[in-house]
Amino acid sequence: MTDPAAPQATNRVLAARIWREYLRPRRNRLVLAMLSAAIIAGLSAALVEVLKPAVDQLITHPQPGALVRIPLLIAAIAIARGLFQVLQTTSINRIGNGVVGDMQVRLFGKLVRSDLARLRGAHSGSYVSSMLYDATLIREAATSGLVNYTREFLTVIGALVVMFRLDWMLAAGVLVIAPVASLFIRRFSKKTTKAAKGAMGETSNLSTAIMESLDGVKIVKMENREAYEEGRVAEVIDRRQRHLIKGSNAKAMAAPATETFGALVTACVFAYAGWRAGTGGMTAGAFTAFLGALAMALQSLRQVANLQTVFSEGFTAARRLFQQLDVEPAIVDPADAKVLPPGEATIVFDNVSFAYGDNAPALHEVSLQARRGETVALVGPSGGGKSSLLNLIPRFYDVTAGAVTIDGHDVRGVTLASLRDRIALVTQEPFLFDDTIRANIAYARPGAAEDEIEAAARQAAAHDFISDLPLGYDTLVGEAGARLSGGQRQRIAIARAFLKDAPILLLDEATSALDTESEAQVQAALERLMAGRTTIVIAHRLSTVKDADRIYVIDRGRVVETGTHAALVRHKGLYARLAKAQDLDHLPATSPEVGA
Ligand SMILES: Nc1ncnc2c1ncn2[C@@H]1O[C@H](COP(=O)(O)OP(=O)(O)OP(=O)(O)O)[C@@H](O)[C@H]1O
Fold this sequence. Notes:
alpha/beta, ABC transporter transmembrane region fold, Rossmann fold, 3 domains, six-stranded mixed β-sheet, 63% helix, binds adenosine-5'-triphosphate, ATP-binding
């Protein structure tokens, strides 16, 4: 069997998976929808068959009683068909929305658990398009497509049965030309499939382009590039529309073809019927009913043809969505993972090398150590590898060689949950969710009590400004915290770390975004946060560097110097040059040796 996630997975494999995972749990309702579809097809056939007695008994040879009986019969069939149509539609709606919901939840669950490397590797727009667009296309194919197909198919069969009952010879003649109709259907379904695939690819590009422009809206405005962005999006829209137009044209061109074909068949039926009527073999009623059945069969065949597009879109979407769904993260708990036991929280990098995928290594044989109560600073030129190093501790990425250990336990040997429980991370641009300040502080500990949240905010020097807000802790912070200042966002992130109270603190310090007063508050809060923890900080603020127990100077992926600020200044190496550039090389030197 083909792997359902593989790009070449056959439609049969995809259909089996959709059935197994999404439809089987809803099979009762699906059976109801299918039964309704079958009954609708039967009633439609009955409706055309009634035309025979209707014409014969009401018009050609009027019969007493028929005037009431036949209209009542038609009304009863029509009402029953209407009721089953409602039943079919409501069942499909329930199944369809359930299927989409399931797919979206599963896909999001998968994405949010996937490796950082994978998430960084594709634009989030493509995930959004898959979640919203692909899932809907699969729903269309798997629910209304499937049920309508069944209904229309059975309607064709029903119409054929009626035709055979009315005049088997004529029906057999019509049946002989059926393969021609199927040739039509196949021909244009190929074209629409190709167009559908193209349109789907462009839908993904479109969401990417829109999200990117809006994410970078400040720079777009600053550089007066609105018109350029508009043009860029317009180009993608144009490409997408070209595919959509091609698809619609293929459909539209098929309509005159099938209609002409239908008219030709009808003409033949007329000729035959005329001949048969002349010889007394076919009544006017039978003839009318036959034409009605033929028209119904042709109409249903057209629907069947249209549904081919729905199926091909659905399968293409399923192939894409399952591919996304089936990528297993590489960074997971090992089979024999143990919980990281509480301890001193000593972090050791033992000859660590690391590369992003197949790129050149970002870190070469790095060794470093940070103990409880210590502040270890990472400094060095941009692109040197400081962030990469920090990312290895909570296993956002895994080392390529060597090991990162905490209290002697390799981080790859313990559960991710217990590892990350022990670490608080405060980044340069702290991320806040569009929720209340309270929820943002309590993000790591959703069950935290009100006074714990407030205590954390006080320690982070955030309580006063929060209390000054009209809604206090209930204030909604806006998208990514947009309604707060940079310093306020940072203090909320620090409060979050205080509340988490993890023994390890990873800090990517803010650079120059803050004014002096705000910076002093943030700095004081950070110092309180660092006390008594194992802190590794990417240092930009020189006061942190000065007070650090140890500084590791990282350049081009290697630790090139180690020591205290004073010792490193005396050493007159890279650090001394960086410090000089920042006018910080005149501090009294009091301290120990420099290493490398
Ligand atoms: N996701 C990624 N994929 C591929 N390469 C990356 C990725 N992130 C960083 N790099 C590369 O790894 C190297 C180290 O980057 P890193 O971000 O760790 O440096 P840094 O010292 O933190 O820089 P800065 O001070 O500018 O933030 C750089 O050459 C960078 O181009």
